Structures are given as structure tokens and as C-alpha cells.
């Protein structure tokens, strides 16, 4: 670090770089279905998948689930999202689950950042998102509100 002389000001410039592009190394493998057949557990439950998770260093978590415009969130998946978010929040790790919607063709990649958030689970309840807000906008607001830098 540069030493400053009396009366001299030190200025630090932070540049926000373009985030790295996420590269899928093997698109054919990424498109494979994970079959949970044979994994029926006690109480009649199966494993579930979650489409996205952001871990802010163990301090905060955002769970993301994408659905087509008309698809409903399955009961088990909804309960899993609620339980994991409630568990994190009880432990002092501010967390949220969001449902985003798309109408992307199955042959095309879903650009999640541009999808609209339709529901948010926080504070023990689901709220329908009335205003049109994209996933990217939601994340920016979440980070700002929770002082995640």
C-alpha cells in the first residue's frame, strides 16, 4: 500500500469487472435427467432438485426454482424450500426462496436473469410477486437490502 505524506490524500479506485461467463463444460451431460427412482425414503418422500442456489459465504442464501408459466410447484418441493429457508433463518442466516417463470422452448437455454419472479418465500410465508421484477433485479435488491457486498 502506498504511504501518504501529511496533507496528501490517498484515493482508491474500485473497478467493477464484468462477471465471468459461466461455461457448461458438457452440455449433453447437463441435459441428462437425474432419476431418483429407488430412493423412496421414510414417510414416502423422494429427493428433490432445486434449480439454483446462491450461497453468500454461509451468511445468506437464495434458493431459486424455475417453472414454466402454467406449471405448479409440487407440494414436496414447496415444503423442502420452506423447510430449508426456515432452518437457515432460525440459525441467523437470512435466506429466501423465489419461484421464477419462463416460457422458453425446451430446445433453448433459459436466461434466468431475465425471468420474472412470481413468488417469494420469506419470513415463514409465500407472497405473490405483483410487480414485474426479474431474477436479476430481485438479487440486486436482496444484496442491497441485506448489505451483501
- Percent of residues in helices comes to 10-25%
- Find the structural class using helix and strand composition: alpha+beta
The total beta strand count reads 5
Structural Rg = 20 Å
Which percent range describes the beta-strand content?
A: 15-25%
Q: What overall geometry do the principal axes of the alpha carbons give?
A: globular
Please give the alpha-carbon distance between the first and last residues: 22 Å
Poorly predicted parts: none
Helical element count?
3
Task: Summarize the structure in words.
There is one protein chain. By secondary structure, this protein is an alpha+beta fold. It has a domain at 48-145. The protein is built from three helices and five strands. A five-stranded mixed beta sheet has the order 1-2-3-4-5, with helices on both faces. The longest helix is centred in the middle third of the chain and has 16 residues, at 75-90.
Amino acid at each position: 500500500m502506498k504511504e501518504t505524506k501529511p496533507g496528501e490524500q490517498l484515493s482508491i479506485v474500485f473497478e467493477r469487472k464484468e462477471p465471468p461467463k459461466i461455461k457448461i463444460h458438457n452440455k449433453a451431460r447437463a441435459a441428462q435427467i437425474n432419476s431418483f427412482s429407488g430412493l423412496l425414503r421414510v414417510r414416502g418422500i423422494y429427493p428433490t432438485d432445486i434449480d439454483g442456489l446462491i450461497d453468500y459465504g454461509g451468511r445468506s442464501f437464495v434458493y431459486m426454482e424455475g417453472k414454466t408459466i402454467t406449471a405448479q410447484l409440487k407440494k414436496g418441493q414447496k415444503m423442502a424450500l420452506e423447510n430449508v429457508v426456515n432452518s437457515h433463518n432460525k440459525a441467523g442466516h437470512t435466506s429466501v426462496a423465489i419461484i421464477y417463470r419462463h416460457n422458453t422452448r425446451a430446445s433453448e437455454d433459459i436466461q434466468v436473469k431475465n425471468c420474472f419472479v412470481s413468488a417469494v418465500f420469506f419470513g415463514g410465508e409465500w407472497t405473490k410477486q405483483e410487480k414485474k421484477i426479474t431474477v436479476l433485479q430481485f438479487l440486486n435488491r436482496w444484496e442491497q437490502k441485506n448489505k451483501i457486498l
